[in-house]
């Protein structure tokens, strides 16, 4: 017998029941068509955090050098954030990966169209939302942050 339509009288649906669109997949990225492991699989949260740290250190060093010559953009923390956002937007748009992603063998992929470029607007929105920290820290059952869900992207291995 097919699963009948649920009403509010049935109470909340328990995750994992039949036809539950919010039930976790068997592995991160399964629901968006990514393989379980290897190239093209979903990158772990720890690996993505490591990439952000690498990018931040690069921008912090550049900001320290920049601020030693001028304070036109503010102090080192402000310039670091500005450089980090520029780095994320430009490299995400042009190369679909930041230097931190490259060091840790990751990249940004669109989930709606396989093989299509990330594009400028996705790179801008992803970077701005990541800078707010909370959207990147809140992940779904596939391990994607809210910034990736909003832009139809995922950070994959390879």
From TrEMBL:
<feature type="transmembrane region" description="Helical">
    <location>
        <begin position="75"/>
        <end position="96"/>
    </location>
</feature>
<dbReference type="InterPro" id="IPR051791">
    <property type="entry name" value="Pra-immunoreactive"/>
</dbReference>
<feature type="region of interest" description="Disordered">
    <location>
        <begin position="1"/>
        <end position="20"/>
    </location>
</feature>
<dbReference type="InterPro" id="IPR016795">
    <property type="entry name" value="UCP021697"/>
</dbReference>
<protein>
    <submittedName>
        <fullName>RDD family protein</fullName>
    </submittedName>
</protein>
<keyword id="KW-0812">Transmembrane</keyword>
<feature type="transmembrane region" description="Helical">
    <location>
        <begin position="49"/>
        <end position="69"/>
    </location>
</feature>
<keyword id="KW-1133">Transmembrane helix</keyword>
<keyword id="KW-0472">Membrane</keyword>
């Amino acid at each position: 017998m097919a699963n009948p339509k649920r009403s509010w009288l049935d109470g909340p649906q328990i995750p994992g029941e039949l036809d539950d669109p919010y039930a976790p997949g068997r592995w991160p990225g399964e629901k968006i068509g990514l393989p379980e492991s290897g190239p093209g699989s979903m990158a772990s949260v720890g690996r993505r955090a490591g990439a952000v740290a690498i990018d931040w250190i690069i921008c912090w060093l550049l900001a320290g050098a920049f601020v030693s010559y001028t304070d036109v953009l503010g102090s080192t923390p402000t310039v670091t954030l500005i450089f980090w956002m520029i780095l994320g937007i430009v490299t995400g748009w042009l190369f679909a990966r930041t230097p931190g992603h490259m060091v840790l063998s990751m990249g940004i992929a669109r989930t709606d169209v396989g093989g299509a470029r990330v594009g400028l607007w996705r790179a801008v929105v992803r970077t701005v939302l990541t800078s707010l920290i909370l959207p990147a820290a809140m992940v779904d059952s596939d391990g994607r942050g809210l910034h990736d869900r909003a832009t139809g992207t995922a950070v994959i291995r390879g």
